[in-house]
Design a protein that fits this description.
Layout: H1 16-22, H2 25-28, H3 32-48, H4 54-72, H5 83-95, H6 108-144, E1 149-154, E2 157-163, H7 164-189, E3 191-192, H8 208-215, E4 219-220, H9 224-229, H10 232-258, E5 266-267, H11 286-309, H12 323-347, E6 349-350, H13 352-359, H14 366-375, H15 380-397, H16 406-412, H17 420-423, H18 426-432, H19 441-455
Parallel strand pairs: 3-4
Antiparallel strand pairs: 1-2, 5-6
Helix pairs in contact: 3-4, 3-6, 3-8, 4-5, 6-7, 6-10, 6-12, 6-19, 7-10, 7-19, 10-11, 10-12, 11-12, 14-15
This protein binds arginine.
Length: 458
C-alpha cells in the first residue's frame, strides 16, 4: 500500500488487517473513468477561477488523461485505499508536486458522491437500452401472434380466451413502466454534489456552474450536508431494478410453465435449454429459473442499502461505502438477466394449435354466454346463474359449451337465439372484447402501436 492521503496526522501506518478491511479499491475501481472525468472538470474549474494557475490546471488535466491511457494499456489498479487515492497517487507520480494541488477545495466526500451519480446516471441509460431491447423482442412475438389465441388465466385457472399478442404486450407494458422509472431516477439524480467539500462547503472562490456544465449535470446541489450523505439515488436505482426483476421473474415463471409438457404452449430452442446429468430425456428451463432466482439478490441489495442509510447521523459516514458492492452487483445482474431474456424471447417458438385448443377448454367462453343474456335484458346476476347451471350440466354430460345445441341453450333460457352458437366460440369470444386493451385483433394491434409509440419517446 502507498501512503495514505491522510497519513500526516498519524504516527504509525494502518495495520495490514485494518487496511484490508477499510479499503474499497477492489470494487470502487469501477469508478475509475467517472473519477477521472470529475477530477478533470474540477481541475479545469480551479484553473478558470484562479485558485490554481492555468498552467497547473493544464498539467493536472493532461496527467489525468495520461492515467486513463495507461489504464487502457493495462496498468494494474491496485495498492491504494480507494480509487480516489489511487488516481491522486498516480498523478503525483506522473507530474510531481502540482498533482498534490488537485484536491484543493474538494473532499473525497463530495468526490465519491459525484462519482456515484455519474456512474449511476449511465447505469440508468444502460438499463433503459437493455429494457428497450427486451421490449423489441416481445414486440417481435406480439406482431407474429395477433391472430393466435391462448387461454388467459386468473388464479392459474383458465379464465377467458385471449389474444396471444395481448399477452406479450402485457409484459411490454410492465417493462415500459420500468423504462419510465429508470428515466425518472436518472432525471432526479442529475444534480451535482461537487463543491460541497467535506460537509460544509468551501472557503475557496469556486464556480460550481463550470463543473456542472462540464459534467452535464442539470443542477448543483443546494445543501452541502445533504449532498455528501445522500444515496437516495442508489436506493432508487436498486428499487427500479427490483421491480424490473419482479417483472422479469413473472415472465420466467410463465416461461417455465408454458414450456412444460403439461402446458406445451412454447418451445425454448436447444441453444437456450439445458439437460439433466441423470435423466437423458430432460430439457430444463435453467435460464428462466436462474433469472427468477437472481431476483432475490437484487431485492437483497435494495434492503441492504435501505438498512445502511437508516439511522446515519448527518453528514458523511463510512457506512456509505457499502452502497457500492450491492449497486455494482445489481447492475451486472440486471443487465445480464435483461440481455439473456431478450435473446430468449427472440428465439422461443409458439405451439399455435396447442394454445388454440387450450383456449377453448375450461368453459372459457362462459362469460360470453352470461353477457349474451345480460345484453338481452336478463339481469347479469341471473344470467350468471343460468350460465353456471349450463356449465354444471356440461360437466355432468362431458360436453363443452361450444358443443351444446340451440335446443339445449333454449332449455336453459328462452332468451337464447341461433346466434348464441356463434357467440360461444373461442374466436368470437376474443374478438368480442374490442375495448381498448382488449383481446380482439384490432385491440391487440392498437396495443402494439401504442407500445411502439411510447417506446420511441426514450
Ligand atoms: N471509499 C469511500 C466511500 O466509498 C470514499 C470516501 C471516503 N471519505 C472519507 N471521509 N473517508 O465512501
Amino acid at each position: 500500500m502507498k501512503n495514505k492521503l491522510w497519513q500526516g496526522r498519524f504516527d504509525t501506518p494502518l495495520s495490514a488487517d485494518a487496511d484490508a478491511f477499510n479499503q474499497s479499491l477492489t470494487f470502487d475501481q469501477k469508478l475509475f473513468d467517472v473519477d477521472l472525468d470529475a477530477s478533470i472538470a474540477h481541475a479545469t474549474m480551479l484553473g478558470a477561477c484562479g485558485i490554481l494557475t492555468e498552467e497547473e490546471a493544464k498539467r493536472i488535466c493532461e496527467g489525468l488523461k495520461e492515467i486513463r491511457r495507461d489504464a487502457a494499456a493495462g496498468m494494474p489498479v491496485s495498492g491504494a485505499e480507494d480509487i480516489h487515492s489511487f488516481i491522486e497517487g498516480e498523478l503525483v507520480e506522473k507530474i510531481g508536486d502540482t498533482g498534490k494541488k488537485l484536491h484543493t477545495a474538494r473532499s473525497r466526500n463530495d468526490q465519491v458522491a459525484t462519482d456515484m451519480r455519474l456512474y449511476v446516471r449511465s447505469s440508468c441509460d444502460a438499463a433503459i437500452r437493455a429494457l428497450k431491447d427486451l421490449i423489441g423482442a416481445l414486440l417481435l412475438r406480439a406482431r407474429e401472434s395477433v391472430h393466435y389465441l391462448m387461454p388467459g388465466f386468473t388464479h392459474l385457472r383458465k379464465a377467458q380466451p385471449i389474444n396471444c399478442a395481448q399477452y406479450f404486450n402485457a409484459y411490454s407494458e410492465m417493462f415500459l413502466r420500468d423504462i419510465d422509472r429508470f428515466s425518472a431516477c436518472r432525471a432526479r439524480l442529475n444534480v451535482m454534489p461537487l463543491g460541497s467539500a467535506a460537509l460544509a462547503g468551501t472557503s475557496y472562490p469556486i464556480d460550481r456552474e463550470i463543473t456542472r456544465e462540464l459534467l452535464g449535470f442539470a443542477a448543483v446541489s443546494q445543501n452541502a450536508l445533504d449532498a455528501v450523505s445522500d444515496r437516495d439515488f442508489v436506493a432508487e436505482y436498486l428499487f427500479c431494478a427490483s421491480l424490473a426483476m419482479a417483472h422479469l421473474s413473472r415472465l420466467c415463471e410463465d416461461t417455465i410453465l408454458y414450456t412444460s409438457e403439461e402446458f406445451g404452449y412454447w418451445n425454448i430452442p436447444d441453444e437456450y435449454s439445458t439437460g439433466s446429468s441423470i435423466m437423458p430425456q430432460k430439457k430444463n428451463p435453467d435460464l428462466p429459473e436462474l433469472v427468477r432466482g437472481k431476483t432475490g439478490r437484487v431485492y437483497g441489495a435494495l434492503v441492504s442499502l435501505l438498512t445502511v442509510i437508516k439511522g446515519l447521523p448527518l453528514a458523511y459516514n463510512k457506512d456509505l461505502q457499502e452502497d457500492k458492492e450491492v449497486f455494482f452487483d445489481t447492475e451486472t445482474t440486471l443487465l445480464q438477466c435483461l440481455g439473456i431474456y431478450a435473446a430468449l424471447m427472440k428465439k422461443i417458438t409458439l405451439n399455435v394449435n396447442v394454445m388454440y385448443d387450450a383456449a377453448g377448454e375450461g368453459f372459457s367462453t362462459a362469460t360470453d354466454v352470461a353477457d349474451y343474456l345480460a345484453k338481452r335484458g336478463v339481469p347479469f346476476r341471473d344470467a350468471h346463474a343460468v350460465t353456471g347451471k349450463l356449465v354444471r350440466d356440461c360437466i355432468a354430460a362431458g360436453k363443452k359449451l361450444e358443443g351444446l345445441t340451440l335446443e339445449e341453450f333454449k332449455a336453459a333460457s328462452p332468451v337464447f337465439e341461433e346466434d348464441i352458437l356463434e357467440t360461444v366460440k373461442v374466436r368470437s369470444s376474443a374478438e368480442a372484447r374490442n375495448s381498448v386493451g382488449g383481446s380482439s385483433v384490432k385491440a391487440a394491434r392498437q396495443g402494439i402501436s401504442s407500445i411502439k409509440k411510447r417506446l420511441a419517446a426514450y
